[in-house]
Amino acid sequence: MARRRQLYEGKAKILFEGPEPGTLVQYFKDDATAFNSQKKGTITGKGVLNNRISEYFMLRLGEIGVPTHFIRRLNMREQLIREVEIIPLEVVVRNVAAGSLATRLGIQEGTRLPRSIIEYYYKNDALQDPMVSEEHITAFGWAGTADIDDIVQLTLRVNDFLTGLLLGVGITLVDFKLEFGRLYENDEMRIVLADEISPDNCRLWDSKTGEKMDKDRFRRDLGRVEEGYQEVARRLGILPEAGVRDLKGPETVQ
To answer: Which whole number is the average pLDDT over 76-104?
Structure first.
């Protein structure tokens, strides 16, 4: 197993230095957290599935001109990605009332919203990722107005594309979280889609039955969590040929 220097470990992924300058290796874990890490557990095979699902979405988005940090999948649990300067924001798109939006505003879960809503949250675990406005973002220098314009434009394109793609396989894209980064190339900077797109950060419901096929099955103790993730991969036609199996992570060098 390759020896790589670990650069960062988050709740669901580990980042290692990449084989070439300006690249990183992103490793997907089976660890699961909810409610700002108050609930922790393991979803067997989640990392394998999220790696494949996120690869699929990133490639399809790249085909329509959405710039991403994704380069290629390396193996069952790892991706090669471009190193970017992460903008400390979680950009949440809501198409149907669910989760915290339904709770905050007293809207019945499952209510179709009048239009898609974009919310911003400051990425800070210690502060429990508080919601912020564009005024906060620009005042504190997390991103400029031009950056926000780019983020909004890309976010709406991602939402439109994924909504249609998923509806085609009988899945409603209820809401999802995106992250963006600054990619510096040839003395130029551009905003690109980063992190991942998977059932970890999307709410995905069966379009006919409303059955949940995402991390809400873990959050709400609904059971059959692994099966939910597998069903998303199956409908997208990307369930690993040999089924989900464990794969040992790379040996790290501290």
So the answer is: 97
Domain count, the chain: 2
Same domain, 31 and 79: yes
- 31, 136: one domain: no
Element (H, E) at 35: none
Q: Which domain holds residue 177?
A: 85-206
Q: Report the C-alpha gap between 109 and 103 in whole angstroms.
A: 8
Closest CA to 161 of 55, 62, 50: 62
| Composition of the chain by helix, strand, coil, percent to 5 | 30, 35, 35
Total-model pTM: 0.90
CB 180 within 8 A of CB 189: no
- Whether 160 and 94 share a structural domain: yes
Give 89's Cβ-side CA count (13 Å radius). Answer: 29
Q: pLDDT tens digit string along 97-123?
A: 999 999 999 999 999 999 999 999 999
Q: What is the pLDDT of residues 133-185, one digit of tens each?
A: 999 999 999 999 999 999 999 999 999 999 999 999 999 999 999 999 999 98
